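Hey team,

Filing this mostly as a record. A colleague (T.K.) asked me to run one chain through the structure pipeline before their review meeting, and I want the input and output archived in the tracker in case anyone asks later how it was produced. No errors, nothing strange. Just documentation.

Input sequence:
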Amino acid sequence: FTLAAYRFGKYKSEGDTPHDVAELTFVMSDPPAEKSLEGLWRAIEATLAGVTLARDLVNEPAAVKTPTYIATLAKQLGKECGFEVEIWEPKRIAAEKLAGLVAVARGSNEEPRFLHLRHRSKNAKRRVALVGKGITFDSGGLSLKPAKSMETMKCDMAGAAAVLGTMTVLAKLKTAVDVDAYIPITENLPGGKAQKPGDVIRYRNGKTVEVLNTDAEGRLVLADALSLAADTKPDAIVDLATLTGACMVALGTQVAGLFANDQTLADRLLAVSSETGEPMWQMPLVAEYKDDIKSAVADIKNIGGGHAGSITAALFLQEFVGTTPWVHLDIAGPAFLEKGLSYAPKGGTGYGVRTLVRWLSTIAAE
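Output structure:
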């Protein structure tokens, strides 16, 4: 009821307020103890707040939600909810050799930011890394998108929004798992200093990438974050990104594509997503398709051969996770609705928050 009642109406002159739910009656054949029910309700309220935060961020115009804006908001949320926030500005980003983020940000007048968020628990037995793509507006860079395709590109930071929303929930519920979140944030614009097709990027792990299409920028900034995450040797890495239109061709607008190098991790996320109502479908990491991202002048290139675009994008990301158990969620379809559904109006859905919270809660309970 609360998800369906959501509205983003701050820019409507007459307002578009949420529909208040005055009363809900739950009928249970075997109701839990009152204490358990209170705990469940607290978890629901915290999760709904995380989803609403993610939706609001995705729906906010790109002129407002600049990288600096999101970084400032993250710092504020860290203080309010109880997680650590480290903000890297351009000098630190360059010093840490986040070459993909530096390259993509060159075309914009807005400075990039890189967020490292930490949730810690004294009772944690597992440590997980989350990565969210934070392109606050994607014009395609010099490989410019058609005007129609740009209309919804304020949504290209939905992965970052989902990760930030998840971190607020974990902190509020004091979930007993350690989580590090890595969020690269920038615009992708065709300014005079923008990266050019044919440029080569050298990453912090030594790999070189030939950039043949500047509109395949999400994987360039995710590579930085995945490399950083893998270096800390977590028990698992999960990244969320509005990465490819090809995934929408394959799975439509309501199902995310799941790619994994570890089947146990994939199975757990698939099971949890069926419980939360955030559908995912596992896609193959076809090793033979790696030939499609081989470059003549660098180790790899940032686009494939024209087919299986979501798979070749995932294979690109796999180059930066090493042997760490990893799942990549391509949420290009379900992160933003062109047509509303029963649980969400048109716009940002907050996809991923409920699944990540449920998954991390099950880890904490083990």
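Quick notes for T.K.: Residues 64 and 140 are 19 Å apart (CA to CA). The chain has a mean pLDDT of 96.
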